[in-house]
TrEMBL record:
GO biological process, alphabetically ordered: L-amino acid transport
Pfam families: ABC_tran
Lineage: Bacteria, Bacillati, Bacillota, Bacilli, Bacillales
Protein name: Amino acid/amide ABC transporter ATP-binding protein 2, HAAT family
Any one GO molecular-function label of the UniProt entry: ATP binding
Naturally occurring in which organism (per UniProt): Lentibacillus halodurans
Start and end residues of each ABC transporter domain: 2-235
The UniProt record lists the keyword Calcium: no
InterPro entries: AAA+_ATPase, ABC_transporter-like_ATP-bd, ABC_transporter-like_CS, BCAA_Transport_ATP-bd_LivF, P-loop_NTPase
Record-linked CDD domains: ABC_TM1139_LivF_branched (cd03224)
Record-linked SUPFAM superfamilies: P-loop containing nucleoside triphosphate hydrolases
SMART domains: AAA
Transmembrane domains' residue ranges: none
């Protein structure tokens, strides 16, 4: 469904991502692991059209999306939920959600259905639908960011560090929600530092080191890899 072939991204003379090969099948939850600055977010920015490749290609359903504008990529069905949430703090919860539905703005029936689905997934957002986004807790803000992304009816959702700054219990709830989103038909590409939780729901994983993919495999293989265990699983 989504494939990177030799994807390379530079910032000036600095190579942020080098020759990345990633394959995401429809229905997968694929996790990108790695420390801050390893290249995960840059990979997401490249997929979303926010930065350009200097070499390689990105394919969506077999067609190249290199050079397409971010709004066109969203319309195709690839939506990113950024690490720092990028909410509109002085707008209400529901107004934030409606911003996510912009690509379907002419289809009022679809928007109402999507809104109902988000509120069903995150009931607290319905309870707080008139509250300003900045008044929400960290976990609720993350729910809102994911809910806003869902409003565009994505085929593939890019989730960048959704557990950042959240309490362990909230992280557990968040990952259950991500599983539910996947079960409902959305393919997930997830960047995470919380390797243990991420691999527990993933179908496949890639480990970044200094902009390159150092290890890849199924969760069981990564759990048994001594290098991965020491670096990311505390074992």
């Amino acid at each position: 469904m989504l494939e990177l072939r030799g994807a390379t991204v530079n910032y000036g003379n600095f190579s942020a991502v080098q020759q990345a090969d990633i394959s995401v099948e429809e229905g997968d939850i694929v996790v990108l692991l790695g420390a801050n600055g390893a290249g995960k977010s840059t990979t997401f920015r490249a997929i979303s059209g926010l930065v350009r490749l200097v070499s390689g290609e990105i394919l969506f359903k077999g067609d190249s999306i290199d050079g397409k504008s971010p709004d066109k990529i969203v319309q195709m069905g690839i939506v990113q939920c950024a690490e720092d949430r990028k909410l509109f703090p002085q707008m209400s919860v529901e107004q934030n959600l409606m911003m996510g539905a912009y690509v379907h703005r002419k289809n009022k029936k679809q928007i109402r259905k999507s809104l109902e689905e988000v509120y069903e997934l995150f009931p607290i957002l319905y309870d707080k639908r008139t509250n300003f986004a900045h008044s929400l807790s960290g976990g609720q803000q993350q729910m809102l960011a994911i809910g806003r992304a869902l409003m565009s009816k994505p085929k593939v959702m890019l989730l960048d560090e959704p557990s950042t700054g959240l309490a362990p219990l909230v992280v557990e709830q968040m990952f259950k929600s991500i599983q539910q989103i996947n079960n409902n038909g959305t393919t997930i590409l997830l960047a995470e530092q919380n390797a243990k939780v991420a691999l527990s729901i993933a179908t496949k994983g890639y480990v970044y080191e200094n902009g390159s993919i150092a290890v890849e495999g199924k969760p069981k293989e990564l759990f048994s890899n001594e290098k991965v265990r020491k670096a990311y699983l505390g074992a």
